[in-house]
Every structure is written in structure tokens, then in C-alpha cells.
Write a structure and sequence with these properties.
24% strand; Structural Genomics Hypothetical 15.5 Kd Protein In mrcA-pckA Intergenic Region, Chain A; 22% helix; 3 domains; alpha+beta; Alpha-Beta Plaits
Length: 249
């Protein structure tokens, strides 16, 4: 039975459907040595390759926790000299789950498991992400209240969230949304500019004492809890529908 190319790639565990579409658009995917295009179907017996390497046999699942430094870009495009894949230089093919802006630092996951990407990125799951942020001038109670009650951005009003002041110009925020550059845009709306932004937690996993620029594997306990948290999310959900939750900041 034939299936769509992006679904075929995702089901091998190589990457999510969204990432697969990017590889296809970049002409890095072939079917039987012919450059693939979006919309192609894969038939039984077809040989699908990415960057000249055949895929189809599901690899052992890899799950990494990475403390991303400022200046590293969450992209799989190797032409970008600051790409996260080259920085980590892992022994087998992996890709980031969601993204963290280049000027930001902190926690991001990487994996070769396309199924878990779709589960984590599903919009309805409301997975928490925690950040510590400093801005360019002192904040006050009014700032905290307005940030926590929702800020009107161009496309929507942000969901209510936890915000706590932790210093003259520093606060902690917990989001369950993933709008593009959300925290920076929320602050800008209130007349502030983000100076530093660090993600310290995603769901049940924290940076703890992981040094900046280093990675580690998920622990068995973390993996067990993660699987429980995403258990009710359909693994076959198309991640292209996750426009309002993309593990962004």
C-alpha cells in the first residue's frame, strides 16, 4: 500500500512530517534515485534516501536534553554554519523538537523519533515550558499582572500564564503556548526589551546542572514520565496542524 512521502519518512522515525517537508523542499530526498517533490507517494519496494542515505529501517530511539547557548540556530539546515546539528555533532541523525530562538539559551530536546515529536507538539496538550527572563528596565506589579493575564498580539491574545518577579528586572514565566517569539513580543508590547532569555524546563525535564553547550540522554525515569504525559496524544497526528504550538518561546 502506498503512502505519502512525508508520512513514510516520519514513520521510519527519521523526523517529523514537518521536518520531512523541509528536506523535500530542499531537494535532499530521492525516491529510486529521482529527486522527490512534495506530494509524491511511496510504493512498496521504493528506495527512499535523504542526503544519499537510505532510510526505512527504524533506528534505535535517541532522546537528548541540550543546554543551547546563544548563537546556535535550531535548524537541520547544514548550510547554516550556526546549526544545532553540527554544534552537537551526534554520531547519528537527530533533529530538534520545536525551536529556541538564536538569541536565547537553555533547554531543548533532540531526537530521531518522529512519533514523539508529533505527540509533544500537538496543540491541545498544554505542555508547560518555564523561562527566566531579564529585560532592559525595572519591572513592577503592573507588568507582572498584565503579562500573566494575557497580552494582545497581532494574531491573538496570549493565554493566561504564571509570572513571578525575581529581581529588579528579572522574572520567571511558565507558558503552555508556543507562539513565535512569544515572550519577546509580549514584553515589547508593554514597552520592554528582552535582554536575556533562558528556558529552564520543558514538561517534567529541567536543565538542573547541565552545563551550557552540553547535552545528556533522557534518564529512564524522565522517559517514563514523558511517555505518560504524551500517552493520550495521537502518534499519527500530522504535525503540520500545530501552528499554534511549536515549542517556541
Amino acid at each position: 500500500m502506498d503512502k505519502s512521502l512525508n508520512k513514510y519518512i516520519s514513520e521510519t522515525g527519521f523526523c517529523s512530517r514537518r521536518e520531512a517537508d523541509k528536506y523535500i523542499e530542499q531537494a535532499r530526498v530521492t525516491i529510486n534515485d529521482n529527486i522527490a517533490i512534495k506530494g509524491n507517494r511511496v510504493m512498496p519496494g521504493d528506495v527512499v534516501e535523504v542526503d544519499g542515505e537510505p532510510i526505512g529501517r527504524k533506528e534505535k530511539a535517541v532522546y537528548l536534553v541540550f543546554n543551547k547557548p546563544v548563537g546556535v540556530t535550531c535548524t537541520t539546515d547544514l548550510k547554516d554554519k550556526t546549526n544545532i546539528i553540527s554544534f552537537i555533532n551526534y554520531k547519528s541523525r537527530i533533529f530538534p523538537i520545536g525551536r529556541l530562538d538564536k538569541p536565547s539559551e537553555g533547554l531543548i530536546f533532540l531526537t530521531n523519533d518522529g512519533d514523539i515529536v508529533n505527540k509533544i507538539l500537538r496543540a491541545g496538550n498544554n505542555h508547560e515550558k518555564e523561562y527566566v527572563v531579564t529585560v532592559d528596565k525595572p519591572i513592577n506589579g503592573d507588568f507582572v499582572q498584565r503579562m500573566s493575564n494575557g497580552i494582545r498580539l497581532q494574531e491573538t491574545v496570549t493565554k493566561k500564564c504564571f509570572v513571578k518577579q525575581e529581581g529588579k528586572n528579572r522574572f520567571r514565566i511558565i507558558l503552555t503556548q508556543g507562539l513565535n517569539r512569544q515572550i519577546r513580543r509580549m514584553c515589547q508590547t508593554l514597552g520592554y526589551t528582552v535582554a536575556t532569555l533562558k528556558r529552564v524546563r520543558i514538561m517534567n525535564i529541567t536543565l538542573a546542572d547541565l552545563p551550557l553547550g552540553k547535552w545528556r540522554y533522557f534518564t529512564p525515569a524522565e522517559m517514563k514520565t514523558m511517555e505518560e504525559l504524551v500517552a493520550h496524544s495521537s502518534k499519527t497526528a500530522d504535525s503540520s496542524s500545530n501552528n499554534n504550538f511549536d515549542m517556541q518561546e
